[in-house]
Amino acid sequence: MGKKSLFGLTLAELQQIVLSLGMPKFSAKQIASWLYVKKVNSIDEMTNISLKHREMLNEKYEVGRSAHSDRVESVDGTVKYLFRVGENSFIESVFIPDEDRATLCVSSQVGCKMNCKFCMTGKQGFTQNLTAGMILNQIYSIPESDCLTNVVYMGMGEPMDNIDEVLKSLEILTSDYGPAWSPKRITVSTVGLKKGLERFLNESDCHLAISLHSPVPAQRRELMPAEKAWSIEEVVDLLHNYDFSKQRRLSFEYIVFKGVNDSELYAKNILRLLRGLECRINLIRFHAIPNVDLEGVDMDRMISLRDYLTNHGIFTTIRASRGEDIFAACGMLSTKKKGENN
Q1: Residue of 59, 203, 330, 340 with catalytic role
Q2: Catalytic site residue 330?
């Protein structure tokens, strides 16, 4: 049996390990600092832990970080990283530099159960949840790790469908035993899964992004099967119980599809749905994916929608399209790589 990974364990979990090995409890905090602040790759580098205790740790454990298996860079500076998970499974992370911001988009699952019509990851089906260590490895194991200003959980998978490991990764990122990131630097997205979303709202202070894509339930159901389980109206009802007027920000992601959800009628329905919520809307250009009969719209239509929504009280932005020349749509590069290996 292989060694277990230390990377991705919380302070409480590390304390259990050191106590089980007869090590002093305070050494757990030392290990956490080596893992998450000093970013070591091996237990032997943890020099303030005695040689005897390092040898004991080495018998059963390893740090457990892994390098990316592929890297593709766009003409606009966006970089997509591919990480191997298991025998023939891959996840993607996308580094997005933008003036004074450097954002990494991370994955939370291999594949996805949500099967949204417009998403390539959903076409893969679901393979496995990522551990907190696998999620954090995407942040720690890229060359740009030290310059990151923001992390968004908007890559492959549905974060609220893997809520235990997502919350663990958020705890480590924002804790004083870890890198002590402000929750304001982290955004987690969801289609709106009730159980996971309630836990996230109650147990984390990070920003929240809801995948909306249509304010009309029947149409949203066609685009996003998760609407059948828990409707967008129920999601919005829940959100009304929380305060988004201070530190934590609430946003709605809205991919604009030509002739589907791009008219003023839809803008009016969005305003009706979100009335009374302190939030913003991010309009997103659609990246075409194979065998899906959806098209993006031109920039004039995007601007028209943005201006209508902003003029009627909801601050709305158009997210810049990045990396269109490097399999930009989430799941495309991992699908290609998996196909090559079959």
Answers
A1: 330
A2: yes
Find the catalytic residue in 13, 59, 92, 203. 92
How does pLDDT run across 287-334, given as a tens digit for each residue?
A: 888 889 999 999 999 999 999 999 999 999 999 887 777 765 565 665
Catalytic site includes residue 278: no
pLDDT, position 327:
65
pLDDT digits (tens, 9 = 90+) for 115-167: 999 998 888 899 999 999 999 999 999 999 999 999 999 999 999 999 999 99
Task: For each of the domains in the chain, give its residue range(s) and CATH number, in order of start.
Answer: 4-62 (1.10.150.530), 70-341 (3.20.20.70)
Determine if residue 125 is left, alpha or beta; phi over 0 gives left, psi from -120 to 50 gives alpha, anything else beta: left
Contacts of 300 by beta carbon, 8 Å cutoff, 6+ apart: none
- Strands 126-129, 250-256: parallel, antiparallel or unpaired by DSSP? unpaired
User: Phi and psi at residue 337, in whole multiples of 5°?
Assistant: -65, -40
Query: How far is 93 from 173, CA to CA, in rounded Å?
Result: 17
Those residues with Cβ within 8 angstroms of residue 138's Cβ, 6 or more apart along the chain or in another chain: 81, 83, 91, 93, 104, 106, 107, 155
pLDDT digits (tens, 9 = 90+) for 45-102: 999 999 999 999 999 999 999 999 999 999 999 999 999 998 888 999 999 999 899 9
The tokens of 271 are what? 């305003």
Q: What are phi and psi of 163, to 5 degrees?
A: -65, -35
For 47-112, where are the alpha helices, taking DSSP H only? 51-60
What stretch of H or E contains 212? Answer: none
Helix, coil or strand: residue 276: coil
